[in-house]
Amino acid sequence: MDHPKTLDLVKELVLRLLSAVDSPSSDAIDELPRALRFAHRLLSSRMAPSLAPDELVLAETIKRQLAACGRSSDALAFSDLRTKLSARSSAPGSIRNRWALLYLLKSLSDARRREPLLPSSATTGLPALPLNPQPSHQSPLAAKKTLPPSCGILLVSKDPDNIREIALREYGDIVMDETEVSESALVRDILFVSQGIDGRYVRFDKVSDRYEPPDLLKLPRSMRTMVCKLSELGWLFRKVRGYITESMSCFPAEEVGTVGQAFCSALQDELSDYYKLLAVLESHSLNPIPTPGSVSGVTVNYLSLRRLAVWLAEPMVRMRLMAVLVDGCRSLRGGAMAGAIHERAQHGDPLVQEFMGCLLRRVCSPLFEMVRSWVLEGELEDTFAEFFIQGQAVKAESLWREGYQIQSAMLPSFISPALAQRILRTGKSINFLRACCEDNGWATAAAEAAAHVGTTTRRGGLVYGEPNALEALVVEAAKRIDRHLMDVIHKRYRFKDHCLAIKRYLLLGQGDFVQYLMDIIGPELSEPANTISSFHLSGLLEMAIRASNAQYDDWDILDHLKVKMMEHGDGNRGWDVFSLEYDATVPLDTVFTASVMKKYLKIFNFLWKLKRVEHALIGIWKMMKPNSIISCIYTEEGAAVKAQFVAVLRRCQVLWNEMNHFVTNFQYYIMFEVLEVSWAHFSEEMDAAKDLDDLLAAHDKYLNSIVEKSLLGEQSQGLIRILFVLFDLILRLRTHAERWFESIFQLQLRGKSKLKTKLKEPGSYPDVGRKAIMQLAGEFLQRMGEDLDKIAKEYSASLDAFISQLPMQQHVDLKFLLFRLDFTEFYSRLSPSK
């Protein structure tokens, strides 16, 4: 508009419009200045149509309108002219705002179509300017109704009589009549309330637990609603500030802890930023609020209720989040608090995610420092019991199993249970190496792990929001420290050698040692238990070691083997209380705990009794072998006794063969199917173990396998009782056999020497004639046969019960035991009901 040519064009256009209304005269010249000012104001106006400036759409609309009116040639001409105009868009002096030009032409055309033109405008083609003033007694609205219809297109762009300002002033008068308090006073009250301070009109009501203006205060409904809505911020602020004050007044207390302190610190920092915003709003509230209808274009930053609502929209969201966290974390602490805040962070709003992420980085800082210290240093810096790993004072042998446990209640949700177990094991490994193994090699392994993943070993190396970094550090540290621990256990403390020694001596795998020990210690164990010296038995144990291949084993390992006498009563024999034990020292007692050694003792007693039964059967065989029995002394008159003796001896040998068959096959099953197979599996798992937990699990599996397969488990109690009955019957046969064959030997001596005097030994037979001796021998053999039949009957019944229960056992190896015992189906044919 400032260009001279533009001003000249506007002046010429206005003059033409004035000449269309009135004939050229002095009046038209007089109206020119006022009409020119109106034209300048109209052209300088920023009012624009509420349409998107799309030239192509507007051009197509114009062509369709021309075609619809039957002016197809005009539509083609318009399209050709617009194409030429567009082609010259880059030429100097071309029209750039073609859309505005097309819109002006279309608006003029639509105005001509809707309203009839004045006769005077038919020649010029433009409407006349409304320069006649309106009568003073007419209202602006009435004046608008009396405007010439040809001027409608100009009134769309400008309101020369300020109708809008008049309406706003009238609205302001109505509002002031309905309001007792100015809006600026309410704004100041809201700013006070936002800081938890009662304002002049808006105060905190303890009954309703909220800030609200009094009911008697005269306010429009919209303004009262706005005040109540903005007052919510003060109620939220009051809750958050109260929690911070209460928590910090209790610190340092276990109920707050370092995580709670970090949470309060993060909330306090958010409130500090909130205070800064309130200071800015306080400065804006000092500027007066313009009244409705006042002069537009005010540039001063004033603060109305609606503007305050816009300013406080984001702080309201943040304060509401903080209040929700305060309510959810009031009774929580430590890892549980961090987990609860993490669950609230799972939100789709980017604003909420950003806010919660910043808050969690502050809150989880103590927790991640505990993880770093535990994984890399083995230190449990948990003064207020906030960490998800809890330690307790225990003995060195229980350090690994009971020293440290996971508190599920303190485990945050962003750490998985598997990762928590790995964190626990890594710290336990460091403490185990330091306390039990007296080894410091873990420090090098931890430093190498941190360097490998690019994490510093100093404080602040781990932060929230980087789960991959945390998991990478834990995995790498666990791998390196566990590898070092396994090297120490296997190489320095020779774990496998100790396990092999237990297998040889406690599980009776060293055959020559066991046989020699049984031979030399058997007579001692036949005595009453209270008359046996454990020191004497220890000497016999050392003698058995030196007399067998056990002497070539390492004496550092053999020194752990000791004699143990169990608790006994007055009627117990040495066989009932004798046992061997393996004294495992630190750190091996972590594996060979008291409960584990009880299981080994249980297995040893069972195997020792099995060996005793085998030893008893060998003793019976030695007494029954032909060169030990002199049967030729019986003369012709003793032929009947001789036949009776041979029959009884044959029955005894048949019973011995049956017992020996059972014991031999059962012992083969225990020694090879149970002990050797379990040891082979344990050796493989022991070599493949990557950490101490794997090693403990492999050993427990090995020991439990032996217990279950050896009929010592809880589910085989009925079967083991029958087995012990069979063992007792074999031992009973040994006792009877000793008495029988001793008596037979005495009879043979008396019959051969024909002694007539009374033997001095107690229980010897009197000196009677040869016929009397034959009679006594017949009676003795008859009693011997009766006792033998009784033992055989009980043994057959017990063996039948034992074999009948084997198929009902769950373990598959026990079914193979049945196959070995009855591979000829002899017992199946004897008992077809099975």
Automatic annotation (TrEMBL):
One Gene Ontology cellular component annotation held by this UniProt entry: gamma-tubulin complex
Location of this chain's protein in the cell: Cytoplasm, Cytoskeleton
Domain Gamma tubulin complex component C-terminal stretches: 497-827
Coiled coil: none
Source domain of life: Eukaryota
Keywords in alphabetical order: Cytoplasm, Cytoskeleton, Microtubule
Signal peptide start and end residues: none
Listed Pfam families: GCP_C_terminal (PF04130), GCP_N_terminal (PF17681)
Domain Gamma tubulin complex component protein N-terminal: 187-490
GO biological process assignments: cytoplasmic microtubule organization; meiotic cell cycle; microtubule nucleation; mitotic cell cycle; spindle assembly
One GO MF term attached to the UniProt entry: gamma-tubulin binding
Region named Disordered: 119-143
PANTHER family (UniProt xref): GAMMA TUBULIN COMPLEX PROTEIN (PTHR19302), GAMMA-TUBULIN COMPLEX COMPONENT 3 (PTHR19302:SF14)
Family: Belongs to the TUBGCP family.
Protein name: (wild Malaysian banana) hypothetical protein
Protein source organism: Musa acuminata subsp. malaccensis
